[in-house]
Specification:
It is a single chain. The protein has 170 residues and is α+β, with helices and mostly antiparallel strands. The protein has a domain of 107 residues: Alpha-D-Glucose-1,6-Bisphosphate, Chain A, domain 4 (2-Layer Sandwich), CATH 3.30.530.20. It has three helices and nine strands. The strands form two sheets. It has a seven-stranded antiparallel beta sheet, with helices on one face. A two-stranded antiparallel sheet has the order 1-2.
Length: 170
């Protein structure tokens, strides 16, 4: 504990990042494309602000680009912003879905070739200190969130419709 302005504040700099790694049976370009451009195909509406089953998830493909949901009625809800866009190997963003922008955490995702037609996807989610006393709770909540969305992402990477139509950016 440290004292700041007369009140006790817990030192949360020691809250470790979430680190998740898995392999998908596709190229890095395809894995990146499904994650960054085809997000609406696999992102569940239960992990959104609106809960709209017809929502569109938009990731603007540039540093500074917004990450947001758009409902069928046209309402937009910001989720974050892009901090790195190195297609097809790396994507970074600040993330604040369901909270205030000042509480944004950091997400870094790499897409690395790992054998014939396979990609190792590594996610590092950090920055929990922005949540102060609630850092541990927020980290655990996001662990559950990743558990809910990543199986859908993995399935979409393997979807025949995507394997036959994915772009081959280099």
């Amino acid at each position: 504990m440290t004292v700041e302005g007369g009140s006790e504040v817990r030192d949360t700099s020691g809250v470790p990042p979430l680190e998740i790694a898995f392999t998908v049976a596709c190229t890095p370009a395809h894995a990146f494309d499904v994650y960054a451009r085809r997000t609406s195909l696999w992102w569940p509406s239960t992990h959104s602000v609106s809960g709209d089953p017809a929502l569109e998830v938009v990731i603007e493909p540039r540093v500074g680009g917004r990450i947001y949901e758009r409902t069928a009625a046209g309402q937009e809800h910001d989720w974050g912003w892009i901090t790195s866009w190195d297609e097809p190997t790396r994507l970074g963003y600040r993330w604040y879905l369901g909270t205030d922008r000042t509480l944004a955490t950091k997400v870094e995702i790499t897409f690395a070739a790992s054998g014939a037609g396979k990609t190792e996807v590594t996610i590092r989610h950090s920055g929990w200190e922005a949540h102060g006393e609630g850092a541990d709770v927020w980290r655990d909540r996001n662990r559950g969130g990743w558990s809910g969305v990543l199986p859908r992402y993995q399935n979409e990477c393997h979807s025949e419709r995507n394997l036959s139509t994915s772009t081959t950016s280099t």
